[in-house]
Design a protein that fits this description.
Rossmann fold; eight-stranded mixed beta sheet; 13 helices; 8 strands; globular
Length: about 300
């Protein structure tokens, strides 16, 4: 069972502490997510290290308070957190936008990162697809006025709004256990009362697209990373096509690629047992990181 804590990084930042000892493990959620996105797996991950799930700026219980929600600002947040609150290089486990942020951290501060688990990470588009519900869901928050209307809809009926998101995020929504669904609904209701939600989402989304559209620069980032990585991806992901994960593995053949059949964008929620098995296998066989070697 997690305990809530608050750390000061140019303002309060909410962190869920799931216990454990040894290697720091930091769980980083995706766009529109929060620490609850790790609920089915976080306690179990504490068997492998000191496990915490952070709420990024503008998400979960971390208010912006004048801070940017852009991915570069989130990168700096994670670096500051690791410098002040981790006593050794950390294993970064990032889903979607959190995976991209993990890559940015590993590039900028290799000495702080022992390894990466990239869970359906936000990546450059390799095989464009015309999925209108997804396109509308991503585009609306970026258009002035429409983003606010989406926020108002979430305020009016957070459960309905959450269920619509789950239809995009999951291949099989029935795979989500009732307890985790209830936790997610509680967070959705809490977020419905936060007036900064729409602007924080748009700020983060715009910055994400700015980074990903520059494919050559992205490849340079990836090539410079010294940490080992596990690339984990659902083959039914409607947000980040599995072709992008295979492309990333081609850029870094030393990184391990694990494709989950019949799983969508959030394997840790849709297939938690398979997620944990994959992480455990990789931890048992991964090569040593350069940051560990330097210590």
């Amino acid at each position: 069972m997690a305990s809530s804590m608050e750390v000061d990084i140019n303002g309060p930042v909410h962190v869920a502490d799931h216990g454990g000892t040894g290697t720091p493990i930091l769980l980083i959620h995706g766009l529109g997510g929060s620490h609850v996105n790790w609920s089915p797996v976080a306690d179990q991950l504490s068997a492998f290290g000191s496990t915490r799930a952070i709420d990024l700026i503008g998400f979960g219980y971390t208010q912006p308070l004048g801070r940017s929600s852009a991915v570069e600002a989130q990168r700096d947040l994670i670096i500051s957190y690791l410098l002040d609150h981790a006593d050794a290089p950390a294993l970064l486990v990032g889903n979607s936008m959190g995976g991209l942020i993990s890559i940015l951290v590993a590039e900028a501060a290799p000495e702080l990162v022992e390894g990466l688990v990239l869970v359906d990470a936000a990546l450059p588009t390799i095989r464009p697809r015309l999925d209108m519900p997804v396109i509308k869901g991503l585009a609306r928050p970026l258009i002035p006025g429409l983003g606010q209307k989406m926020y108002e809809k979430a305020v009016e009926d957070p459960e309905s709004y959450m269920n619509q998101l789950f239809e995009i995020l999951f291949h099989d929504g029935s795979a989500l256990d009732p307890e985790t669904r209830e936790i997610a609904l509680e967070m959705a209701k809490a977020r419905a009362e936060m007036p900064w939600v729409a602007s924080a989402f748009a700020d983060a989304a715009r910055s994400l697209f700015r980074v990903l559209i520059r494919r050559k620069a992205f490849v340079s980032r990836v090539e410079s990373i010294t940490a080992p990585a596990l690339i984990m991806h659902g083959d039914k992901d409607r947000l980040v096509d599995v072709a992008s994960a295979r492309w990333l593995a081609e850029q870094r053949p030393d990184w391990q690629l694990e494709i989950f059949e019949n799983v969508g964008h959030v394997p840790q929620l849709e297939a938690p047992d398979r997620f944990l098995e994959a992480v455990e296998r990789w931890l048992a066989t991964r090569p040593e990181s350069a940051s560990t070697t330097q210590l």
